[in-house]
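worker-03 picked up job from queue 'complexes'. Input manifest follows; two sequence lines, order preserved.
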Amino acid sequence: MTALFFLVPLNVLIIALLVFLFFAFSKEKNGEKDIRKQLETIKTAYDAKAKEYDAEIAAAKSEADQALKQSQEKEASCKMVTDECNSKMQAMQDEMQKKMDEVQHIEDSLKDEASERIKQFEQQQKEDVEKNMVSLVMNVTKKILEKTLTYEEHKEIIKKSIDEIKFQD
Amino acid sequence: MKKEPIEKNDILDKISALIYRKNTLEIVIINLSAFKKKVDRTKKPTIEKIKEYIAETITNANLKQIFMAELEAGNFDVFQTQTITSLLAKLNDIAAIGTVIDLSLPLPLTDTDLREIVDQLEEKLHTKIILDLKIDPSLLGGIVIKKDNYIFDASLKNHLKNYENEWVKSLHKAHKI
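worker-03 finished. Artifact:
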């Protein structure tokens, strides 16, 4: 009896344990299913989201590529404009240098010409002054001659002048 | 005492000796022509008439002096038409064959001095000289003679001009050096 006493609760316990296990197992299985289902849902959602994100990424990438392409094109265009600008600037600088050289040349020529003219003017002035001096001396001589020559001296000069005459036949 | 009549040639020489200036020659010819006209109109001119004609027609002082001297000397032949005609012919010859020389002087000379100049020129040219005299004080001294295309400028003005030119030339040369 004692053994029975002990066997009956044990059986019950075992049965209970089995039931428990069954239920537990069943419950676990249901939980797993749920989890699986949930996982499936999550996966589906994840895949959908992933797809969505991939599409967005692709769109963004495409947009980025396009922007990059545009940027590259703009950069190329910008480079071209810059090169053209540089080229024009260089040409302008060359032209400016050329003009400056020309201006310098003209300035030098003008300086030389002015210097030459000043020299000529000084020379001319000097010559004029000397010429005026000669003229002045001659005029003074004339005045003196006019006043100092006597009638007899005039007569003498005239006679000597006639002596110098050589008529052609 | 009766004076010796003067030969026609003497009066011709006397008058032609006066003629060494172009304007004198012209005036003397005009005077003589006018005198001749007056004489021609009178059959027998008296001394008074001749004096009157001389006063009326002869403007050249030297000619007047010669004529008056001849008249006072009683040499009436001089005033005959024939003599006057000869005189005019002689003067026209002088005008035709005489060499006219343009003479510029700085001051007027006396007749004696001018005569000397004419003698000097006649000696050089061996011909009768008639002066066309001009007074140009700007000459200062000396003379300028023009005969045809020949110009002899021996004036002090010209000498001074030449000196001035030489001086200026030498200054130019000095500047070039």
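worker-03 released lock.
The beta strands of chain B are 99-105, 129-135, 144-147, 150-153.
The helical segments of chain B are 8-18, 22-41, 47-57, 61-72, 81-97, 111-125, 156-176.
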